Amino acid sequence: MAKILIPKESIESLIKLDEKGLDKLALFGTPVENITNSEVELEISANRPDLLSTQGLIRSLSLYLGKNIKKYSIKKSATSRIIVDKSVKSSRPYTRCAIIKDLKLNDTLMKQIVLLQEKLHNSIGKNRKQLAIGIYPLEKIKFPITYTAKAPKEISFQPLGSNKQMNALQIIEKHPSGKEYGHLLSKESKYPIFIDANKSILSMPPIINSEQTGRVTTSTKELFVECSGNNPYLLEKTINIIVTALADMGGTIHETIIEDEKKESSPKLEWEKMKFDPDYLEKITGINLKESEIQKCLEKMGHIYKNKSVLVAPWRTDILHQIDIVEDIMIAHGYDKIIPILPKISTIAQEDELEKFKETLIELLIGQSASQIMTPHLITAEEAKKMKVSHTISVESSKSEFTILRPNLLIPMLRTLAHNTDTEYPQKIFELGKVFTRDDSEECGIREDEFLCFALTPGNVTEAKQLAEYTIRMLNLQSSLKERKEEGFIDGRTATLLVNEQEIGHIGEMHPNTLNDWRLKMPLSIVTININSLFNLIYPK
Amino acid sequence: MDSLYETLSPIEIKILPYLSHPLSKIIEKSGLDEVSVMRALKFLENKSVISLEIKKNVKIELGVNGVQYKKTELPERTLLSFLEKKKSIGLSEVQKHIKLSDNELKSAIGALRRKDLILIEKEKIILNAKKEELSKKFPEEIFIEQLPLDKEKLTQEQKYIAEILEKRKDIIEYVEDKEITIKTTEKVAILLKNKDNSNEKLIENVTPEIIRENQRNSRFRKYDLIAPVPKIWGGKKHSVQIEIERAKKIWLELGFSEITGKLIDSSFWIFDALFTAQNHPVREMQDTFYIKQMHASLPKEKIVNDVKKAHEQGVQDSKGWGYSWSPEEAKKVVLRTHTTSLSARALSELKSSDLPIKLFAIGKAFRNETIDWSHGIEFFQTEGIVADENANFPQLLGFLREFYKKMGFNKIRFRPSFFPYTEPSVEIDVFHEGKQKWLELGGAGMFRPEVTFPLLGKSTPVLAWGQGLDRIIMDKYKIQDLRELYANDLKKMRNYPVIA
């Protein structure tokens, strides 16, 4: 979710910022986050990059509030050619460009252009991975421009904000933009560049413009805009978003010719035609709107309605299917005007049997005055080491110390007891939860088992046995024990818990060595039970 | 019999005759220990039979070493007597001749130097005292003989000596001493009269014998029910468990059936089947926990191909995202970022004859976060879906209104929102009465055709909504710090109410 700041007077010229106005903005899908003396902060959802500039937002909001907007036209020009060389096909194969003239820039507008570029990079550009945008003063450039790729050592220019010429490798290593975005080119043997008829390098996308040709100032009146990346459809839409915003600042839009496999004019500002069926609208929304109402709703969202089809506003990137048109009509109609109804579907509810069984176990243990705890599913590397866990399953790049999927509930239990040594004893606690083991027969290579872990402190193995036997007895089963060895427990006081000869758990008295490792001062007995095994014994499949 | 008398416990009755005596006498005469006498006095004070005036004062008494020195002599006296004969001695030699510990020798030298009775020169102790000074008692010796003393009543000089001695090991110690004055009221006399007149014993604890020998007019001692009793606690469900069960009940009341599933799943079910493009930011490692070195197997080919098609070129007249979909990316194994993966799997298993169907899930979801007061790496989520050929958007709002009403939110509003897998999408704001403002509580929508078609084989409308539970629980239990919810602090947990 992106946030943008819009000058307060721009919004207030359209809508009063009282309670009703704020509701209206929320119902348009751009709720107000904050209002300061001079600016209004709005939340923009990820599907609407066209609203990421003051101009784009004001345009769409004007339409939504029933106001007319100006029409955009493109001036022809056969000379502004951009030649796309085959060498870029392996990295960032496409570009779309445009020229803007007659601009009168000031500091505010300059700032807005930079912000729009940045916000588009972060949203639709997926941090420049999907596409990158370059904006240049037109006067510094001589057409035709070539979009080509060269070996990094052959690329040398003065990057924006630097005072000396550098080659591409130096830029990636030393320039702040190079450091941040260099990884996007790390797999490429050749780096893409825009280079003009004077052989001066305009930029190396998606990293940086050149200082000589890439610095726009308030005295700049004409701009060359380029957008490069791997998705021609999105590049076209992005250029549309930029040129309409610049036209709303007072500029005029001029054509460029992209000479790729075929010649194409850019920008096109095309009103894409999409099939639209009013019956579908009624099926999805349950609302029967007249065609004239549909037309009015669509106009409020910037689209045009023409005999069962919709011409989609050129700056919209999010209309993939007529379901998206349906949503736009609902927004224009007003979510607040839709009357909620409850259908008369008769369905019979069914709880999950295992979940029900878990609740039964919880009831049993609470009846034994034990309290339930809930701990995270991840443990720390230090904890795993302490309990000599081998074959750990780890997560990638955790931002916290929790990095390993818990192999048992004993580790979180010991951690919990260690956190509570200043709480009055006796302590009787239990947890129900999932533990993880490697298992190649599983879809994801990991088995998940529901376990129960019960701890009594101070407690001995007799008490553990009593609790285990009681629990099994209450489930109308009989248990037996078989002595075994277990890491962390006292030999001769540790046993496997069996039901019908099948291993379903374990009881034991914790060894003082382990207790000392966890700084526990009280004797501790433990019962663990595999709930899945127990459940399958009671309810065989 | 006076009803006040019936409330007296045996220990109160025992000390009743001796209330005019000082404490030590009461202990002696009643035959009770000091603790019992004090408790009895407190009980009587609570009943306004007496009032207690407790004066605390601090006394200075001899410490362990002090007792010893009083019997023999102070270390500085030992050293001085020795020097009287020897006149001087090497520092390292002293302990060969007189029995002083290192500590004692140090203090003895310190004390004598302060009084200017010795000099230290070239590692030697040299006597510097006049004859008459040798026989004169030190103020410290006089002070020790005078003990015990009230700290409050010390003279200026005594104070000075006390300050010097308290720095030395265990010569003196401060003992807090309580002086209790009992002021009786006229009630004592009445109670005593009662005591004399009653030959009948009031029943204390009811025992099997007492029940057996019970008579119609037995008299029981009245207990003080106002007095505080020690706290107890019992076994309890975790607060989150209580709220999960509450949420589950709501779903069941609305006729939804429960679905469950794995916490770990393939990216395919968590993202791809839900039309979340493979370059969507939510799939980046900095937000999502991927499991190291694991690769999942993908479901049957038809679903995989349809999902691939939905992403690349679209299905059902959709344009799709227009990129090349990678099965390798879909095989990445993830700690699920939402429970919607369960809904996706459930839809893929439905037959036409199962419709209409209403399903819900409650479970943990995970996020790779830096942990702080408002961010955790795990949280509980709940969600439901309705799959029905006749389902539509007003019905979604209808279900949402009922669901949130049952969750305790009567005032709600709907506004547009965006999720990759639903369209139309809606955000639910609920009005928080306490905070008097709208809170964003959950997201909802109808699954996109790009989701339903590959999973169901047709674009049956599916209503879906979900929300995090942790925030609601925190608000309910007035917990400010998210970490507290799963900290398992037994002290706090023992005191959480089960109804908030």
Would you kindly provide a written description of the structure presented here, covering whatever features stand out?
The complex is a heterodimer of chains A (541) and B (500). Chain A has four domains: 2-64, 2-Layer Sandwich (Phenylalanyl-tRNA Synthetase, Chain B, domain 1), CATH 3.30.56; 74-266, Phenylalanyl-trna Synthetase, Chain B, domain 3 (Phenylalanyl-tRNA Synthetase, Chain B, domain 3); 272-337, Phenylalanyl-tRNA Synthetase, Chain B, domain 1 (2-Layer Sandwich), CATH 3.30.56; 353-538, BirA Bifunctional Protein, domain 2 (2-Layer Sandwich). With 541 residues, chain A is of the alpha+beta class. The model of chain A has no long low-confidence stretch (mean pLDDT 94). Chain B is an alpha+beta fold. Chain B folds into three domains: 1-48 and 186-229; 62-177, Arc Repressor Mutant, subunit A (Orthogonal Bundle), CATH 1.10.10; 241-495, BirA Bifunctional Protein, domain 2, CATH 3.30.930.10. Chain B is built from 23 helices and 16 strands. In chain B, helix 6 crosses helix 8, helix 16 (301-312) packs antiparallel against helix 20 and helix 18 (340-348) packs across helix 20 (449-456). Chains A and B meet through helix 2, helix 8, helix 10, helix 11 and strand 21 of A and helix 14, strand 7, strand 8, strand 9 and strand 11 of B.
What do the pLDDT scores of chain A average to?
94
Which overall shape of chain A is indicated by the principal axes computed on the Cα atoms?
Answer: elongated
- Quaternary assembly: heterodimer
Low-confidence stretches of chain A: none
Percent strand of chain B equals 15-25%
CATH-defined superfamily of the largest domain in chain B: Bira Bifunctional Protein, Domain 2
Overall average residue pLDDT of chain B? 90
Provide the spatial order of strands within the biggest beta sheet of chain B: 7-11-12-16-15-14-13
Radius of gyration of chain A: 33 Å
CATH fold annotation of the largest domain in chain B: BirA Bifunctional Protein, domain 2
What is the CATH H-level superfamily of the largest domain in chain A? Phenylalanyl-trna Synthetase, Chain B, domain 3
